[in-house]
Amino acid sequence: MDIRFTNRQRVIRLRDLSFSLLLGSPLFFVVILYAGCGPNIGPKNQRLLTQRVLGGGNYGGAWAVLEPNGRTVVFASPKTGAGNLYSMNIDGTDHKQLTFSEAYSGQPAIAPDGKSIAFISEQVGPSKVYLMKPDGGGIRQLTQGTFNDGAPVFARGSYKVFFARRLSGNLGSFMDAEIFSIDIDGRNEKRLTRNKLADAPVAEGRDGATLYYLSGSVRFDLMKLDLQKGTSQRVLALGIRGNTGCDISPDERWVAYISDSEKPFEYEVFVCHMDGSNRRKLTNFHGYIEQVRFTSDGKQVIFVVQPKGVPEIGQGDIYLASLDGKQLRKIERKKGISPIKAKPARVLFQRIWHKSVVQLSNSLLTDKWQRRLPKL
What we know:
Blueprint: H1 19-22, H2 26-37, E1 64-66, E2 72-77, E3 84-89, E4 96-97, E5 105-110, E6 117-121, E7 128-132, E8 140-141, E9 148-154, E10 160-166, E11 177-183, E12 190-191, E13 198-204, E14 210-216, E15 220-226, E16 232-240, E17 246-248, E18 254-259, E19 268-273, E20 280-281, E21 288-294, E22 300-306, E23 317-322, E24 328-331, H3 345-364, H4 367-372
Antiparallel strand pairs: 1-2, 2-3, 3-4, 5-6, 6-7, 7-8, 9-10, 10-11, 11-12, 13-14, 14-15, 15-16, 17-18, 18-19, 19-20, 21-22, 22-23, 23-24
Helix pairs in contact: 2-3
């Protein structure tokens, strides 16, 4: 079943407002009109509506992946709403917006057969895994429940998705993220790890019986899980800062990962063999890189770089790098070619209407009343 991308939560709940503050004001009638029949559209990063699950006040999830055809890049960016998904050819043409959400969306992953894109979104409050077609159609929610899900990875056969689920209500804690799997039809959800650490899937093994994943607390190592026995072993002591930022090549010969080992919080892309040998540094940006992915042929890696000095996470450039470090290609949109798909006038009107009401109401609310508003 397809899901229309509209936010079901209300920014203003009248029972939480002071009627003595609003009664007699023209804004009172505007708020009533909005709550009763106004547009059901979420705001752009309004803290009264949603508490960000990833990246704090910044945009976490600006990942880029190359479709199996080797021609199309799918990436996430906060350029509209709280973050949406886009696609374009590697030559910068045919730039399209795939999702039109006012809630957070990010962390795209592409099925090996190229027929589906998995991503996470906060459409219903907690972050959930969604699926859609490569053209942005057929969006449907895959995971359910009240927990926050993220870091989706497809199985090699494209029939299943692995993801991380944060089992605590503490949004600031990553120490309780466990790995789950679910079939793409929404059935057979299974919990795969139970170690009370921060785990996130990386890639399924070629044999279909193992799963590579990152696990740790402050620093994270590459692990290998036997999906039948449920036992794990350490593959490589990476010591990276975060439970995303690693991938395995399709032939399982190479590991690509993000590390700030040379200077704290200045991240670079490295590759090495599965035993840690032949380590190579591919970049020299001294910036922020959240995730790296292999292309389907295993000859290149793709990632988004936020240059040093750029204040907001998620504002960066997409690069393709060869494994020998000799080729580094920046993927840029060509101006004036294939503009972003235009939104219907109704959606634009709703966005302007919503933004105006939120700004007016927030300007009248003191910090005391803001603290009383529900934190969703």
